[in-house]
Amino acid sequence: MTALPRFIARGLLAAPVLMVMGIGPAQAAAPDLALPSLVIPLATMPVEPETLPLPDPVRAMIDAAIASGERKDVETVVSLAKATNPKSIAEIEAILAVWQAQNMAGPDADPIHQMLAAAMASKKDSDVEAVGSLAKKTNPDRIADIDTMLIDYRARRTAEKKAEADAARAKLAAAKFWQNWKGEGQIGASQSSGNTRSAGLSLGLALNRKGIDWDQRFRAQADYQRTNGSTSMERYLVEYEPQIKVSDRAFAFGLGRWERDRVLGFGNRWNASAGFGYRFVTGKAMTLSLKAGPAWRETDYLPGRGQSESELTGLAGLDFGWALSPTLKLTQVASTAIGERNTAASSLTALNAKLIGGLSARFSYSAELDTNPPPGIENVDTLTRFTLVYGF
């Protein structure tokens, strides 16, 4: 294409400017020596950038995202491609339009791809593997293609899980001591009238915090009841247990516990222990861990109930949990302190039923065994509770 004569080009560029300045066409026809000074700024205005073909690596990334069947992946890759290749937006939009048209065109021409894509969109690995296995059995001629899709999915899921784990680990590392605590509070009450007048209250709090290298547990329990004007139950317990991870299953622990039970005859009982434990079962539905170590125990009896004593003992403990269903869980916590003069054991069995949100109902049975209790006190003391529990 031949270039326009210079004076014609100047006239075409100058006309709009002169009209804006209020100079009519007749006036504009006369040459003006100042014209070049008006034309030059317009002639140097930026021109729309030319369109460039989409680089092959970028097109390959978009094609891979489309092949995955994941809408979120397609939208993410397309957005990044537009931001990094502004001169190829038209071509990117064309690719996106074709993909959208195919998705809206009705049933997928490849039902195997459609079935696997739907399973992969759920991100439930077991479902994807089940669908892939079924697809290979019913379509033996497509085994290679199906395996390719499954391998790609597994690689992406592995990367996603690693990224999530790294993010969670970084969050734990940056958390302060008072952050990342989870727990539950429970409350229960009882009242009776008539021949026996009684009123009781049960309160409990349990907290736990998981860290990178160590976990922490805290528990407090209070039970109080009056029957016919006198105290028939007054029991308090507070304990704190840190656990340091030795390996994926093994851990070292420390345990501090304070108890008071006036009905059993002691005002204070202190326990301090340390040792090692092992998590034998770590599944989602069931957990089981055992621990053992030396312990020191000191008991301060109430006046007339015995003399204060302290001794070195051995501690063994069990922690068990079993999710019977998504809304029902059975737990068992037990410990035994074996000493030369006395052996004390405690057990708490609870059945939790989820009601709504964080609210649950709990039925629990606890037993306390003391082989050498004060005079007039039974060896075994049990307590049944029905409480409401709120998790947070």
Distance between the termini: 76 Å
Unreliable spans: 1-49, 104-108
What's the alpha carbon Rg, rounded to whole Å?
38 Å
Percent strand: 35-45%
Enter the CATH topology name of the largest domain.
Porin
* Percent range of helical residues: 25-40%
CATH superfamily of the largest domain: monomeric porin ompg
- Strands of the widest sheet, in order across it, are 1-2-3-4-5-6-7-8-9-10-11-12
CATH architecture label of the largest domain: Beta Barrel
For the record, the CATH class of the largest domain is: Mainly Beta
Structural class call reads alpha+beta
- Main sheet properties: 12 strands, antiparallel, barrel
What would you call the shape? elongated
Number of domains: 3
Count of helix runs: 9
Mean model confidence by pLDDT: 82
Order of helices and strands: HHHHHHHHHEEEEEEEEEEEE
Please give the number of β-strands. 12
Keyword list:
3 domains, alpha+beta, 42% strand, twelve-stranded antiparallel beta barrel, single chain, 33% helix, disordered N terminus, Porin, 392 residues, 9 helices
